[in-house]
Amino acid sequence: MKWTGIIISFTAGGAICFAILFFTGHDDSKRAMEERPAVQSVTFSPDVPASVTFCGETVDLTRYNRHEGMDRELSSFTYLHSTTMLLLKRANRYFPVIEPILKANGIPDDFKYLAVIESNLDPTAVSPARARGMWQFMESTAKEYRLVITPTVDERYSVSRATEAACRYLSDAYERYGDWLLVAASYNAGMRRISTEYERQNASSALDMWLVEETSRYLYRIFAIKQIFENPYRYGFVMNARNLYKVIPCTEVTVSADIPDLVEFAARYGLALSDLKRFNPWLRDTRLAVDKRTFVILIPDSSKLTYGQNSVEVHDPRWVINR
User: What pTM was estimated for this model as a whole?
Assistant: First the structure.
Protein backbone atom coordinates (compact mmCIF):
# COMPACT_ATOMS: atom_id res chain seq x y z
CA MET A 1 0.00 0.00 0.00
CA LYS A 2 1.37 3.40 -0.91
CA TRP A 3 0.98 6.31 1.50
CA THR A 4 1.39 9.97 0.73
CA GLY A 5 1.43 12.78 3.19
CA ILE A 6 2.12 16.41 3.91
CA ILE A 7 3.99 17.88 6.85
CA ILE A 8 2.67 21.07 8.42
CA SER A 9 4.99 22.96 10.74
CA PHE A 10 3.97 25.50 13.37
CA THR A 11 5.27 26.95 16.60
CA ALA A 12 3.93 26.14 20.05
CA GLY A 13 5.40 26.96 23.42
CA GLY A 14 8.49 28.39 21.77
CA ALA A 15 9.31 25.24 19.84
CA ILE A 16 8.61 24.01 16.32
CA CYS A 17 6.07 21.22 16.04
CA PHE A 18 5.04 19.11 13.09
CA ALA A 19 1.68 17.64 12.17
CA ILE A 20 1.73 14.87 9.57
CA LEU A 21 -1.44 14.21 7.61
CA PHE A 22 -1.57 10.87 5.83
CA PHE A 23 -3.65 9.91 2.83
CA THR A 24 -4.33 6.57 1.17
CA GLY A 25 -6.62 5.40 -1.57
CA HIS A 26 -7.68 2.29 0.36
CA ASP A 27 -9.94 3.53 3.14
CA ASP A 28 -11.31 0.03 3.69
CA SER A 29 -7.91 -1.40 4.56
CA LYS A 30 -7.61 -2.55 8.18
CA ARG A 31 -3.90 -1.84 8.17
CA ALA A 32 -4.50 1.66 6.87
CA MET A 33 -6.89 2.36 9.73
CA GLU A 34 -4.42 1.04 12.30
CA GLU A 35 -1.51 3.11 10.98
CA ARG A 36 -3.33 6.41 10.79
CA PRO A 37 -2.73 8.91 13.60
CA ALA A 38 -5.31 8.61 16.35
CA VAL A 39 -5.80 12.40 16.47
CA GLN A 40 -5.26 15.26 14.05
CA SER A 41 -3.82 17.75 16.51
CA VAL A 42 -0.67 18.05 18.59
CA THR A 43 -0.50 18.70 22.33
CA PHE A 44 2.81 20.27 23.21
CA SER A 45 4.31 20.18 26.71
CA PRO A 46 5.42 23.70 27.72
CA ASP A 47 9.02 24.08 28.79
CA VAL A 48 9.63 24.51 32.51
CA PRO A 49 11.89 27.50 33.17
CA ALA A 50 15.04 26.96 35.20
CA SER A 51 13.99 29.83 37.45
CA VAL A 52 11.28 32.41 38.00
CA THR A 53 11.16 35.71 39.85
CA PHE A 54 8.75 36.35 42.68
CA CYS A 55 8.68 39.64 44.58
CA GLY A 56 12.05 40.57 43.10
CA GLU A 57 13.77 37.35 44.16
CA THR A 58 15.00 34.61 41.82
CA VAL A 59 13.50 31.20 42.61
CA ASP A 60 15.49 28.22 41.34
CA LEU A 61 13.30 25.49 39.84
CA THR A 62 15.90 22.93 38.79
CA ARG A 63 15.48 20.64 41.82
CA TYR A 64 13.23 17.70 40.91
CA ASN A 65 10.28 18.58 43.19
CA ARG A 66 10.26 22.20 42.04
CA HIS A 67 10.61 21.32 38.35
CA GLU A 68 7.78 18.80 38.53
CA GLY A 69 5.58 21.07 40.65
CA MET A 70 5.95 23.88 38.14
CA ASP A 71 5.42 21.50 35.21
CA ARG A 72 2.09 20.35 36.63
CA GLU A 73 0.68 23.84 37.07
CA LEU A 74 2.09 25.32 33.87
CA SER A 75 0.64 22.43 31.85
CA SER A 76 -2.69 22.77 33.65
CA PHE A 77 -3.10 26.49 33.00
CA THR A 78 -1.82 26.19 29.43
CA TYR A 79 -4.47 23.65 28.47
CA LEU A 80 -7.29 24.85 30.72
CA HIS A 81 -8.06 27.12 27.81
CA SER A 82 -11.37 28.78 28.64
CA THR A 83 -10.56 29.44 32.31
CA THR A 84 -7.11 30.88 31.65
CA MET A 85 -8.44 33.04 28.84
CA LEU A 86 -11.14 34.43 31.13
CA LEU A 87 -8.50 35.26 33.75
CA LEU A 88 -6.68 37.47 31.26
CA LYS A 89 -9.91 39.16 30.22
CA ARG A 90 -10.96 39.86 33.80
CA ALA A 91 -7.50 41.09 34.78
CA ASN A 92 -7.90 43.98 32.36
CA ARG A 93 -10.75 45.24 34.57
CA TYR A 94 -9.52 44.34 38.03
CA PHE A 95 -5.73 44.73 38.00
CA PRO A 96 -6.10 48.54 37.68
CA VAL A 97 -7.99 48.39 41.00
CA ILE A 98 -5.72 45.93 42.78
CA GLU A 99 -2.27 47.14 41.76
CA PRO A 100 -2.43 50.68 43.23
CA ILE A 101 -3.71 49.34 46.55
CA LEU A 102 -0.86 46.82 46.79
CA LYS A 103 1.65 49.57 45.99
CA ALA A 104 0.18 52.01 48.51
CA ASN A 105 0.51 49.37 51.24
CA GLY A 106 4.06 48.32 50.39
CA ILE A 107 3.05 44.88 49.11
CA PRO A 108 4.93 43.53 46.06
CA ASP A 109 2.97 43.69 42.83
CA ASP A 110 3.28 39.91 42.32
CA PHE A 111 0.68 39.38 45.04
CA LYS A 112 -2.03 40.32 42.58
CA TYR A 113 -1.60 36.77 41.31
CA LEU A 114 -2.86 35.48 44.67
CA ALA A 115 -6.22 37.01 43.81
CA VAL A 116 -6.10 35.21 40.46
CA ILE A 117 -5.42 31.86 42.13
CA GLU A 118 -7.83 32.39 45.02
CA SER A 119 -10.95 33.32 43.08
CA ASN A 120 -10.31 33.33 39.31
CA LEU A 121 -10.70 37.12 39.69
CA ASP A 122 -14.39 36.68 40.46
CA PRO A 123 -15.57 39.18 43.12
CA THR A 124 -18.58 36.99 43.92
CA ALA A 125 -16.67 33.71 44.35
CA VAL A 126 -17.71 31.43 47.22
CA SER A 127 -15.65 28.39 48.21
CA PRO A 128 -17.00 25.11 49.63
CA ALA A 129 -15.51 26.24 52.97
CA ARG A 130 -17.60 29.45 52.72
CA ALA A 131 -14.67 31.76 52.01
CA ARG A 132 -15.96 34.65 49.93
CA GLY A 133 -14.92 37.33 47.49
CA MET A 134 -11.91 37.90 45.28
CA TRP A 135 -9.48 37.37 48.17
CA GLN A 136 -11.47 34.50 49.70
CA PHE A 137 -11.77 35.64 53.29
CA MET A 138 -13.44 33.49 55.89
CA GLU A 139 -15.85 35.51 58.04
CA SER A 140 -13.70 35.46 61.19
CA THR A 141 -10.55 36.52 59.35
CA ALA A 142 -12.45 39.20 57.43
CA LYS A 143 -13.66 40.80 60.65
CA GLU A 144 -10.18 40.54 62.16
CA TYR A 145 -8.87 42.57 59.23
CA ARG A 146 -11.62 45.20 59.51
CA LEU A 147 -14.08 44.16 56.83
CA VAL A 148 -17.72 44.91 57.61
CA ILE A 149 -20.15 42.00 57.56
CA THR A 150 -23.80 42.67 58.46
CA PRO A 151 -27.18 41.42 57.19
CA THR A 152 -27.06 44.05 54.39
CA VAL A 153 -23.31 44.42 53.80
CA ASP A 154 -20.44 42.00 53.17
CA GLU A 155 -17.24 43.81 52.25
CA ARG A 156 -15.53 40.56 51.31
CA TYR A 157 -17.28 41.10 47.96
CA SER A 158 -15.80 44.59 47.51
CA VAL A 159 -12.67 44.38 45.36
CA SER A 160 -11.06 47.49 46.84
CA ARG A 161 -11.96 46.88 50.48
CA ALA A 162 -11.02 43.19 50.34
CA THR A 163 -7.69 44.07 48.69
CA GLU A 164 -6.97 46.52 51.50
CA ALA A 165 -7.73 43.79 54.05
CA ALA A 166 -5.51 41.34 52.20
CA CYS A 167 -2.69 43.90 52.35
CA ARG A 168 -3.09 44.11 56.13
CA TYR A 169 -2.84 40.34 56.38
CA LEU A 170 0.18 40.17 54.07
CA SER A 171 1.94 42.94 56.02
CA ASP A 172 1.38 41.06 59.29
CA ALA A 173 2.71 37.85 57.75
CA TYR A 174 5.81 39.56 56.37
CA GLU A 175 6.50 41.08 59.77
CA ARG A 176 6.49 37.55 61.16
CA TYR A 177 8.49 35.78 58.43
CA GLY A 178 10.48 38.37 56.49
CA ASP A 179 10.09 36.05 53.49
CA TRP A 180 7.51 36.61 50.74
CA LEU A 181 7.30 32.93 49.78
CA LEU A 182 6.32 32.01 53.33
CA VAL A 183 3.87 34.92 53.33
CA ALA A 184 2.20 33.59 50.17
CA ALA A 185 2.05 30.04 51.53
CA SER A 186 0.52 31.31 54.76
CA TYR A 187 -2.28 32.99 52.83
CA ASN A 188 -3.44 29.53 51.84
CA ALA A 189 -2.61 27.53 54.96
CA GLY A 190 -2.66 30.16 57.70
CA MET A 191 0.26 31.61 59.64
CA ARG A 192 -0.07 29.15 62.50
CA ARG A 193 0.19 26.11 60.22
CA ILE A 194 3.11 27.47 58.21
CA SER A 195 5.03 28.56 61.32
CA THR A 196 4.55 25.16 62.97
CA GLU A 197 5.56 23.12 59.93
CA TYR A 198 8.46 25.35 58.96
CA GLU A 199 9.99 24.95 62.39
CA ARG A 200 9.12 21.26 62.79
CA GLN A 201 10.55 20.31 59.40
CA ASN A 202 13.61 22.56 59.75
CA ALA A 203 12.91 23.69 56.18
CA SER A 204 15.09 26.14 54.27
CA SER A 205 12.31 27.24 51.88
CA ALA A 206 8.54 27.22 51.69
CA LEU A 207 8.91 25.27 48.43
CA ASP A 208 10.57 22.32 50.13
CA MET A 209 8.12 21.79 52.99
CA TRP A 210 5.86 18.75 53.15
CA LEU A 211 2.34 20.18 53.25
CA VAL A 212 -1.16 19.21 52.20
CA GLU A 213 -1.53 19.03 48.43
CA GLU A 214 -3.48 22.27 48.07
CA THR A 215 -0.79 24.30 49.83
CA SER A 216 2.06 22.44 48.12
CA ARG A 217 0.60 23.38 44.73
CA TYR A 218 -0.26 26.94 45.72
CA LEU A 219 3.08 28.65 45.10
CA TYR A 220 3.63 26.84 41.80
CA ARG A 221 0.19 27.91 40.65
CA ILE A 222 1.17 31.52 41.36
CA PHE A 223 4.45 31.11 39.47
CA ALA A 224 2.72 29.44 36.52
CA ILE A 225 -0.05 31.98 36.09
CA LYS A 226 2.49 34.79 36.33
CA GLN A 227 4.47 33.18 33.49
CA ILE A 228 1.37 33.03 31.32
CA PHE A 229 0.24 36.57 32.17
CA GLU A 230 3.67 37.91 31.27
CA ASN A 231 3.73 36.11 27.90
CA PRO A 232 0.32 34.67 26.96
CA TYR A 233 1.18 34.36 23.28
CA ARG A 234 4.02 31.96 24.10
CA TYR A 235 1.49 29.65 25.76
CA GLY A 236 -1.04 29.81 22.96
CA PHE A 237 -3.37 32.58 24.14
CA VAL A 238 -3.95 35.00 21.28
CA MET A 239 -6.24 37.96 21.93
CA ASN A 240 -7.03 41.36 20.52
CA ALA A 241 -7.85 44.41 22.60
CA ARG A 242 -11.54 44.02 21.86
CA ASN A 243 -11.51 40.59 23.56
CA LEU A 244 -10.61 42.01 26.98
CA TYR A 245 -13.17 43.14 29.56
CA LYS A 246 -13.15 46.90 29.61
CA VAL A 247 -12.90 49.16 32.62
CA ILE A 248 -16.20 50.96 33.09
CA PRO A 249 -15.76 54.37 34.73
CA CYS A 250 -17.76 54.91 37.89
CA THR A 251 -18.78 57.85 40.05
CA GLU A 252 -18.37 57.37 43.79
CA VAL A 253 -21.41 58.22 45.90
CA THR A 254 -20.72 58.47 49.64
CA VAL A 255 -23.56 57.20 51.80
CA SER A 256 -23.85 57.69 55.57
CA ALA A 257 -27.62 57.22 55.96
CA ASP A 258 -29.75 54.13 55.54
CA ILE A 259 -31.15 53.38 52.09
CA PRO A 260 -34.48 51.61 52.62
CA ASP A 261 -34.96 50.72 48.93
CA LEU A 262 -31.97 50.07 46.68
CA VAL A 263 -34.28 49.55 43.69
CA GLU A 264 -35.44 53.15 44.00
CA PHE A 265 -31.88 54.33 44.72
CA ALA A 266 -30.58 52.65 41.56
CA ALA A 267 -33.41 54.14 39.49
CA ARG A 268 -32.29 57.65 40.47
CA TYR A 269 -29.14 57.00 38.48
CA GLY A 270 -30.86 55.29 35.57
CA LEU A 271 -29.81 51.82 36.71
CA ALA A 272 -31.57 48.56 37.43
CA LEU A 273 -30.91 46.90 40.78
CA SER A 274 -28.94 44.21 38.95
CA ASP A 275 -26.55 46.83 37.54
CA LEU A 276 -26.09 48.41 40.95
CA LYS A 277 -25.25 45.04 42.48
CA ARG A 278 -22.86 43.99 39.71
CA PHE A 279 -20.74 47.05 40.45
CA ASN A 280 -21.30 46.79 44.21
CA PRO A 281 -21.63 43.08 45.02
CA TRP A 282 -20.98 43.87 48.70
CA LEU A 283 -24.59 45.11 48.86
CA ARG A 284 -26.30 41.95 50.09
CA ASP A 285 -29.94 42.97 50.30
CA THR A 286 -32.45 45.28 48.63
CA ARG A 287 -31.76 47.83 51.37
CA LEU A 288 -28.68 49.24 53.07
CA ALA A 289 -28.38 49.73 56.82
CA VAL A 290 -25.26 51.81 57.49
CA ASP A 291 -25.19 51.32 61.30
CA LYS A 292 -23.35 54.63 61.84
CA ARG A 293 -20.82 53.81 59.14
CA THR A 294 -20.02 55.44 55.81
CA PHE A 295 -19.95 53.48 52.56
CA VAL A 296 -19.00 54.34 48.99
CA ILE A 297 -21.32 53.10 46.25
CA LEU A 298 -20.04 52.92 42.67
CA ILE A 299 -22.35 54.32 39.99
CA PRO A 300 -21.27 53.25 36.50
CA ASP A 301 -21.20 55.71 33.62
CA SER A 302 -24.26 54.70 31.63
CA SER A 303 -22.64 55.87 28.37
CA LYS A 304 -19.86 53.28 28.80
CA LEU A 305 -21.96 50.17 29.40
CA THR A 306 -22.00 49.00 25.79
CA TYR A 307 -19.31 47.15 23.86
CA GLY A 308 -18.65 48.11 20.27
CA GLN A 309 -19.20 51.84 20.64
CA ASN A 310 -16.19 52.41 22.87
CA SER A 311 -12.70 51.00 22.47
CA VAL A 312 -11.20 48.81 25.19
CA GLU A 313 -8.19 50.28 26.95
CA VAL A 314 -5.50 47.62 27.37
CA HIS A 315 -3.97 47.49 30.83
CA ASP A 316 -0.95 45.37 29.82
CA PRO A 317 0.11 45.39 26.13
CA ARG A 318 1.65 41.93 26.53
CA TRP A 319 -1.85 40.45 26.70
CA VAL A 320 -2.82 41.31 23.12
CA ILE A 321 -1.36 40.97 19.64
CA ASN A 322 -2.58 44.44 18.67
CA ARG A 323 -4.24 47.42 20.33
Answer: 0.87
